Amino acid sequence: MTARQALIVRGGWEGHKPVEATNLFVPFLEENGFEVRIEEDNEVYTDRETMERTDLIVQSVTMSKISREAFAGLRDAVERGTGLAGWHGGIADSYRDNSDYLQLIGGQFATHPAKHPDARVGDETDNYLCYTVDLTDAGRRSEIMAGLEDFTLRTEQYWVLSDDLNDVLATTTHPVQPYHPWHRPITSPAVWTREWGQGRIFVATPGHSLVVLRDVNVRTIIERGMLWASRTASV
C-alpha cells in the first residue's frame, strides 16, 4: 500500500515557533500512514510534480510573503484535491497582502484583544485572555469534534474576518469591555472547514504556543482536522 504524502511548510514569524509546533504533529502523521516532507520555503508550492502527489499540506507560516507563482501552485493543488490544514497565525495570518489567499482560506486574523491597560506588563501575555471555544450545532455533528464539549483556554483570542462558505465547527465571543471601542459582543469562528474545488481546508485559530497546542482539546481537533482535510481522509 502506498503511503499518503504530507507536506509541512513552515516559517515566517518565529514567535509562533513553527519548527517546534509542526514537529509536535509529525509522529501523529507518520502513525497514520503519511510520509512527511518538511520544507522551510513556500516556493515548494511551485513544484507541480510535488504538489500533485501531496495528499495533505500542513502550513505554519505566519505573516511573510508568497510569490504569485507559489500561491498559484498552492491554490491549484487544493482545487485538484490536495488537503490544506493549519492553526493560528500559521494559516489564518499568512500572506496578508494576497487577497486571493485570504479568499482561499476563508478567514483572516484581524486582532487579538488585550487585557485591561492596567494589567499589561509589556510582553505577549498582555494578549492572553481566558475565553471559551463554543461548539456549534454543525460542530457537534462533525467527526472532527466528536465527543468534545465547549472548553476554555487562556491564550490569544483571535478575532477573525470570515465568509459564509465556511462550515463553522466552533466559535468564540469577544465581550464588550469599557476599555475596548466596540459596542456589542463579536462572535468569530474558532474552528472551521471549507471545500474548494476538489480540496478540503481545515483551520483552527487556537495554537499560539506549544502549551496551547498540547491542550488535549486543541490537539485532538488539529489531528482530526488534518485527517479530514487529507485527500484520502478518514477519522
TrEMBL record:
Protein name, per record: ThuA domain-containing protein
Pfam families (alphabetical): ThuA (PF06283)
Gene3D superfamilies listed in its UniProt record: 3.40.50.880
SUPFAM superfamilies for the chain: Class I glutamine amidotransferase-like
Residues of the ThuA-like domain: 6-229
InterPro entries named in the record: Class_I_gatase-like, ThuA-like
